[in-house]
Amino acid sequence: MSKTVTITGAAGQIGYQLAFRIASGQLLGANQKINLNLLEITPALNALKGVAMELEDCAFDTLDKISISDDPNEAFKDSDYAFLVGAKPRGPGMERSDLLQENAKIFSAQGKAINDNASRDIKVLVVGNPANTNALIAMSNAPDIDRDAFTAMMRLDHNRALAQLASKLNCHSSEITNMTIWGNHSTTQYPDVGNLKLKGKNTSSLLDKEWVKNKFIPRVQNRGAEIIKARGLSSAASAASAAIDHMKDWTLGTKIDDWVSMAIPSDGSYGISEGIIYSFPVTCQNSAYSIVQNLEIDAFSKESMKITEKELLDEKAAIEHLL
Ligand code: NAX
Question: What is the pLDDT of residues 240-257, one digit of tens each?
């Protein structure tokens, strides 16, 4: 039977990458047919029609039906996987609090539409920023769906960190494991190498503490801005790739002896407040994730994890009335 995948903001930069990769089988494999439900705002429907035409023209073996809509109730009908990419960008003169409010409206409406229309086993990945708090809003507006179904994307940050470490350690990124991004998808995120392994062996002695603190951490935190400066546009193909990594690992499982970073509803692990969507190290098995427990957390890590937690608590306070 076909699986239904919803992509919001499907005519945008990330949506344009994501739709083709998913339709070609890169999410669920060559033997799983996909129905694509693409959602846009009304003024972008014509552009979305063009995307649908191009998808048809690929004649992908794995693509069954495509539907386009500006109605979230239609787009989330029977959805098994939802990529919530569409969001309102920060306009000129807009404060962060305005951005939170504008997006809160979008994600509360989409949360309701998911609640009313989607498969009860849906998996939701929020990419649109502020991603963690948008995921919290969508989750709060979908009381009939399991809370664990709502996640936000940290995988781009995770992959960016692996790439920086591979370059520093002169190895391939796949040889590096046990890396964590904690917290918010923002510049307060905390890339943590405290448990890092290279080819299965502890690497703490190989990494200079000053380099980690003054070069590695800020570079990962600010990589988005670095890409914008170079490309004149924000990360799109790498973001789509990370979104597929996130959903694929969640569905098919993470690698043995490794973990990934996912922003998920906090259950109080590591002393992080419940009621926010915070990035933790997780392993996935049987289509479910669980937080890696009992990692050693030093004083610097503890402090860094609290800074990014505070930002999420402040974001939550700004939109509390919508929860
Ligand atoms: P674009 O502006 O290219 O595309 C966004 C699309 O969403 C537009 O086509 C717009 O019409 C549509 N849209 C807006 N409101 C909508 C609504 N209510 N329903 C459906 N569609 C709607 O942005 P793009 O570069 O694709 O980025 C999308 C989002 O991803 C942004 O919020 C961006 O900040 C965020 N990002 C998040 C990342 C992460 O790691 N979590 C990394 C990449 C990216 O910056």
Answer: 999 999 999 999 999 999
Task: For residue 83, give the 3-state DSSP assignment.
Answer: strand
Q: Whose CA is closest to atom 32 on ligand 1?
A: 128
Q: Is 84 in the pocket of ligand 1 (CB under 6 A)?
A: no
Q: Is 86 in the pocket of ligand 1 (CB under 6 A)?
A: yes
Alpha-carbon gap, residue 219 to 131, rounded angstroms: 20
Retrieve residue 168's tokens.
Answer: 């520093």
Q: In one letter, which amino acid is 222?
A: N
pLDDT score at 261: 98
Domains and CATH numbers, the chain: 3-152 (3.40.50.720), 155-318 (3.90.110.10)
Determine the residue type at 241. Answer: S
Which tokens hold the place of 106? Answer: 């979008």
Claim: this prediction has a pTM higher than 0.90: yes
The whole-angstrom separation of Cα 21 and Cα 231 is 22
